[in-house]
Design goal:
Rossmann fold, Arc Repressor Mutant, subunit A, two-stranded antiparallel sheet, 10 helices, Tscrpt_reg_LuxR_C, Sig_transdc_resp-reg_C-effctor, Response regulator transcription factor
Length: about 220
Amino acid sequence: MTTDAQPVRVMVVDDHPMWREAVARDLAEAGFEVVATAGDGEQAIRRARATSPDVLVLDLNLPGRPGVEVCRELVGPQSGLRVLVLSASGEHSDVLEAVKSGATGYLVKSAGPQELLDAVRRTALGDPVFTPGLAGLVLGEYRRLAADPAPAADDGPRAPKLTERETEVLRLVAKGLGYKQIAERLVISHRTVQNHVQNTLGKLQLHNRVELVRYAIERGLDD
């Protein structure tokens, strides 16, 4: 599996060896480049930094450091890493915590092999991918967060000027569109959309998609 003619580099993190190796094998057979696997949180952080995968397929229940800590440690405006959580838990609290920690998507382990492959492909493109029924939950949480009063100090450092195109992309992100959908809407490449989002995160000093959507909704950009 490739994007822009380059293989998507994937790392699989799960504490169950048989499950971990089965997922890695399915991904490799589908054309993804599996650059590493890991069985605990500390190992995951070390190996991810050493191999620079495009997508981290991450379980939440890990020895040492849980998956949400791994996510917080590795995901940032400059990292370029996207995380797809693959967990046995479908609890709403786990889903929201994972997304707030920087995960792009969340899939439960009951998903079929083809659903997983498609989710990894879409995650590599920057699209938010969720097990059916969970996407609405996450969007609802975005809006709840946006309804909470924001600290007045936030408006100071977060008021740099965005370009017209960055603002346009931000509006569509706030409406819940994935990168591929935004690219099609604006007739630009998904890579260009990713670049605009990364630039916007840097300008606004934000860390992930949750904070970006909250920022946009607070300013009425989702109308």
